[in-house]
Write a structure and sequence with these properties.
Blueprint lengths: L16 H24 L8 H9 L9 H14 L19 H13 L10 H18 L6 E5 L2 H16 L3 H4 L8 E6 L5 H9 L6 E4 L9 H13 L3 E8 L11 H11 L2 E5 L24 E5 L11 E5 L2 H8 L28 H36 L3 E2 L7 E5 L7 H11 L5 E5 L2 E7 L7 H11 L4
Parallel strand pairs: 2-3, 2-4, 4-5, 5-6
Antiparallel strand pairs: 1-7, 6-7, 8-9, 9-11, 10-11
Helix pairs in contact: 1-3, 4-12, 5-12, 6-8, 6-11, 9-10, 12-14
The structure holds pyridoxal-5'-phosphate.
């Protein structure tokens, strides 16, 4: 019998143990050195994109290159080709400098590459994620019975909320979709919500017109009277309201909608209450700040992004609900090729995703290493950074448009510094700091947000100097 042997494994993809060790140690050293340069260097990209595209075009993949060369090339281009969240003078959108335990979690997940669809293939990761979800649900006051899962981001978690609300609103939604309802469905959130809700409405098949943006109260918070009025108007027209979304930490101004008043309206009207705490939910970690979220315990579901203020690596959000039965109703499926099919347990039967990465380890390790005190301390530190920025700007003739107790400041420059958009462009182009332009209650503002856990007073001074550079 001629037993043919197999070809060798492809060494470029599966190198020897010795090569892995060698390249791994080298990569670690390279990354450590790059991080130091990134933290001290410009916040904005400096790469010449034309040069980059030419280099990129040379990768036609016809001939292999040494992995170390490709790694060096990738690190170099990331060092110069992105806005640097790891730089402590990044005061921008809610993208954090990632905490170290979360980075370690990514190493571990990459090596074992567990498939988190099923509790049979990944019993330990599924139980571990569940443990973290329950700990957060407890912290939010949702009680023992609450459940949930990790999601790729706030948008996926918010989408899950809408599907739960629709599934709970009509027994026939699962089978018939929106045709089950007696009229067009609608859900409500404030004008200052995260506008991905429009995409979510589209994705869910209810149509973008299903989102009704409710007026704010002049301070960036949803006006509960306007909310009630909108629902009454809609009902009078034959529209079917299904959900109220309160935002706890608006994207632009860090404002928290009046959670109790929104919960009262949702309760009176028999509507699902979702609290989008994608960013502000991090305040739950702090004993000093969690009271700001009073009312969150009344939610039917909550979104919290661990990849924002809790500073995990990207692609790590949490969806929590007290109605696990609706998750199972919305996401159940039946197949005989999966290693398990446990309703209420297997992630693939209770969430949008099927194959899924082990992202919960990031928050688990951060919590294990820092405890609630440490994670809460990180969140409180962000608030203090913003307090220092605020004190300095007020002394220099700036005014503050938002009244947020969280770590974001919407600041209005004195007239001699010119208009907001030009000023922000100047600061960003200088590379000395990174801030964003936005508007708050109709005023153009410079949005300054503490997202990096290592920002120092020298970094605050550098930001203030960059913002106040004379024309
Ligand atoms: C309040 C709020 N909700 C939802 C999102 C969307 O989250 P993600 O970008 O993680 O999908 C954001 C993002 O900034 C947000 O601020």
């Amino acid at each position: 019998m001629n037993l043919k042997s197999l070809p060798e494994a492809i060494p470029a993809l599966f190198p020897s143990a010795a090569d892995r060790d060698r390249i791994g140690s080298w990569l670690n050293a390279q990354l450590g050195a790059a991080l130091k340069r990134v933290q001290a260097g410009p916040v904005s990209p400096t790469v010449n994109m034309q040069d980059f595209r030419e280099q990129l075009a040379s990768f036609d993949f016809s001939a292999p290159r040494p992995l170390e060369d490709a790694l060096r090339w990738a690190i170099d281009n990331l060092e110069h080709g992105i806005v640097q969240m790891a730089n402590p003078r990044y005061f921008g959108l809610f993208n954090p400098g990632a905490n170290f335990p979360a980075q370690c979690a990514d190493h571990i997940a990459a090596l074992f590459n567990p498939q988190l669809a099923s509790s049979a293939s990944s019993p330990v990761p599924v139980a571990l994620e569940n443990h973290v979800i329950r700990a957060i649900a407890q912290r939010a006051g949702l009680g023992e019975a609450a459940t949930g899962h990790f999601a790729t981001g706030g948008s996926e978690a918010n989408y899950t909320a809408l599907l739960c609300a629709l599934t709970g609103a009509h027994a026939k939604f699962a089978a018939d979709g929106v045709r089950a309802f007696a009229g067009p469905v609608r859900f409500y959130t404030s004008r200052d919500c995260h506008i991905a809700w429009l995409k979510i409405a589209h994705q869910a098949g209810v149509g973008r017109a299903a989102l009704r943006l409710v007026d704010t109260d002049g301070h960036g918070r949803m006006d509960p009277i306007a909310l009630e009025r909108a629902i009454a108007e809609d009902r009078a027209q034959g529209v079917v309201p299904v959900m109220v979304v309160a935002t706890a930490g608006t994207t632009g101004g860090g404002m928290i909608d009046p959670l109790h008043a929104c919960a009262d309206v949702a309760k009176q009207q028999g509507l699902w209450l979702h609290i989008d705490a994608a960013w502000g939910g991090a305040a739950l970690a702090s004993d000093r700040l969690r009271g700001l979220l009073s009312g969150i315990e009344r939610a039917d579901s909550i979104t919290i992004d661990a990849h924002k203020w809790l500073a995990t690596t990207m692609g790590c959000a949490i969806f929590i609900t007290r109605r696990g039965d609706l998750l199972s109703a919305a996401f159940h499926a039946s197949t005989n090729f999966m290693p398990s099919s446990l309703a209420a347990v297997d992630p693939y039967l209770n969430s949008v995703q099927w194959s899924r990465r082990f992202v919960g380890l990031r928050l688990f390790l951060a919590l294990a290493a820092a405890g609630w005190d440490g994670l809460g301390g990180h969140v409180e530190r962000g608030v203090e950074v913003i307090e220092r920025v605020k004190e300095r700007l007020l002394r220099l003739g700036w005014s503050i448009a938002n009244d947020s107790a969280l770590a974001v400041l919407d600041a209005v420059p004195p007239p001699q510094l010119g208009d907001v958009r030009t000023l922000v462009r100047r600061v960003v182009a200088s590379g000395r700091a990174w801030v964003a332009p936005t508007s708050f209650e109709g005023r153009d503002v410079v949005r300054i947000c503490a997202t990096n856990g290592e920002t120092s007073m020298e970094d605050v001074d550098a930001l203030i100097a960059a913002l106040n550079e004379p024309l």
